[in-house]
Amino acid sequence: MSDDVWLVVGLGNPGPAYAGHRHNVGYLVTDELASRMGASFRAHKTGRADVVEGRLTPPGVPGPRVVLARPRCYMNESGGPVKALATFYKVPPERIVAIHDELDIAFGTLRIKLGGGDNGHNGLRSMRSSLGTGDFHRVRAGIGRPPGRQDVADFVLSNYSTAERKDLPFQVMDAADAVECLVTEGLEKTQQRFNS
To answer: Theoretical Cys-Cys bridge with 97: which of 8, 63, 122, 175, CB 3.0 to 4.6 Å?
Structure first.
């Protein structure tokens, strides 16, 4: 395997019942990236994730190989499939990107960073545990805090509001752009462009 393979993981929960939930924004972003690659997800031979392999650069333009992945398990068990794929493709933690929802960032806002804690996010906690480190990249798609006294778990496992659904495609496209920038131009340029 080439030295420059990136593993880009969309965190979410599988199945149509969860498809529109705030917790599934990682799946939406990897769908957008797969569409840009002109490819469809297929089962990986590990049996624990669906993947797309390709490049996020136009045809003929050099760029790193990218494996898009969606674990086939619930969010809180994401680490096992991510570790299996990282081992299979020989991808070190610093070339893994997790795309996930973030409560502490306003809806429509993105933050890109390398490393950090899990901030109560079960998918990140599982990845940190399985990889033995938190030193992977994160593309954090803001969903904001729940209104009033709504339970956090109920909020992340509920559908976007009608108003949010109108703007969601823009957030998804921005997050996909951020992933492309990260793997082709690096963290610093990506943060300058998207962490505004």
So the answer is: 8
User: In CATH, what number is assigned to the domain containing residue 135?
Assistant: 3.40.50.1470
Q: What is the pLDDT of residues 16-45, one digit of tens each?
A: 999 999 999 999 999 999 999 999 999 999
* Domain presence at residue 40: yes
Let me know if 23 is a catalytic residue: yes
Burial of 171 (0-12, 13-18, 19+ CB in 10 A): buried
> Is 18 marked as a binding-site residue?
yes
Q: What is the domain extent for residue 56?
A: 6-194
Measured distance CA(138)–CA(93) in Å, rounded: 11
**Do the annotations mark residue 27 as ligand-binding?**
no
- Residue 89 marked ligand-binding: no
Closest CA to 176 of 64, 36, 5, 71: 36
Residue 30, domain member (yes or no)? yes
From the candidates 21, 23, 44, 137, give the one annotated as an active-site residue. 23
Mode of pairing for the β-strands spanning 96-102 and 6-10: parallel
pTM, 2 dp: 0.95
Beta bridge partners, 101, equal 141
Number of folded domains in the chain?
A: 1
